Amino acid sequence: MVVKETLRLHPPIGLLPCEAMSHFKIDDYDINPKTRILINAWAIGRDPNSWKNPKEFYPERFEDNVINFMGHNFELIPFGPGRRMCPGITMGSTTVMVTWANLLYRFDWEVPNGMKREDISLEENVGVSISRKSPLYLVPIIYDFGKCESSNVG
Domain-by-domain residue ranges, the chain? Predict the structure, then answer.
């Protein structure tokens, strides 16, 4: 749920390039075959017609939701839609989940001294790729597994 919500709000590529395969119309515009089209995945993930409170980070929205990022649900397309989506989706999503699991398992995380959680800026530079406007500073605290030992062990 956290990975889906993160990819909804912060897709790796903001503008996905595509090419029209056949003629079609969008409103009053004729789109001819071979026309280059940019799909705004960043805006789609924040569309209030598709998402309740679209700017809010709320992973629980995916709890009983069948929407995934595999290219079949056009409300969530961080790797592109349909047959021509990113070929690295499996490697990318697996790498993200394994990395997050290890970082969360091995460390507790704190903000640097003198900083509050509210001071963390989530502003982004939006373009073909998405990047943070300011660096994220967190302090990893090595998790002490010795404190987790059960007193009932023999």
Answer: 2-107
Cβ–Cβ contacts within 10 Å for residue 135, how many? 6
Which residues lie below 8 Å from residue 145, measured CB to CB, with a gap of 6+? Answer: none
Contacts of 106 (CB under 8 A, 6+ apart): 142, 143
Nearest to 93 by CA among 60, 71, 114: 71
Separation between Cα atoms, residue 85 and residue 154, nearest integer Å: 54
pLDDT digits (tens, 9 = 90+) for 8-41: 988 888 888 888 999 999 999 999 999 998 888 8
**Residue 104 to residues 22, 89, 98, 109, Cα–Cα distance (Å):** 47, 22, 10, 8
Q: Cα–Cα distance between 132 and 125 in angstroms, integer?
A: 6
